[in-house]
Design goal:
Strand content: 25-35%
Number of strands: 10
Distance between the termini: 21 Å
Largest sheet: 4 strands, mixed
Helix content: 25-40%
């Protein structure tokens, strides 16, 4: 994991992710949706799916349209966002099990505000948010327990 990525690295990352033909199990594009519960579910789903698909990290990118990957900018500001009286990063970390060392990066890409959430893959067991394990099925976030074959496949990844 790149702990101190440069703006050039982050801009290059956004450019590469935008080249994907569509969202994947490990990449989600958003415009402004900043619902903390949904972000927590994405952290679980994308971390688990990254492990299943043998990716080091997964990403949520705000400020990019889902359908055509056009950069539209975002008003989402994770650095100042709170859930109750708690900083959003602390709140999310507290509700994830096991804890993930995820990072929000706020950059300017093509002159517009873009936020990247870098999520490390799950390592020893599925990541839960508020006690529930999530997974991506296509571009949809679902409960892992509703997909027993994917759950078996994920545990097989952890066993190797």
């Amino acid at each position: 994991m790149n702990t101190n990525p440069t703006p050039d690295y982050l801009n290059g990352l956004v450019a590469e992710l935008r080249k994907l033909p569509k969202e994947t199990g490990w990449v989600e594009f958003k415009e402004n949706n900043s619902n903390p519960e949904e972000i927590g579910e994405y952290l679980s789903a994308l971390s688990n799916t990254a492990a299943l698909q043998d990716k080091t990290n997964a990403y949520v990118v705000w400020g990019v349209k889902d359908d055509n990957h056009e950069v539209v900018g975002t008003e989402f500001k994770p650095a100042t966002m709170k859930k109750g009286n708690e900083n959003i990063e602390n709140w999310l970390t507290r509700l994830l099990n096991p804890h993930l060392h995820f990072h929000f990066y706020e950059i300017t890409h093509e002159g517009k505000a873009v936020v990247i959430l870098e999520i490390p893959r799950a390592h020893t067991k599925p990541v839960k948010f508020q006690g529930v394990e999530f997974i991506r099925v296509g571009s949809y976030r679902q409960k892992l327990k509703d997909h027993p074959q994917l759950e078996k496949d994920l545990w097989r990844v952890f066993d190797t």
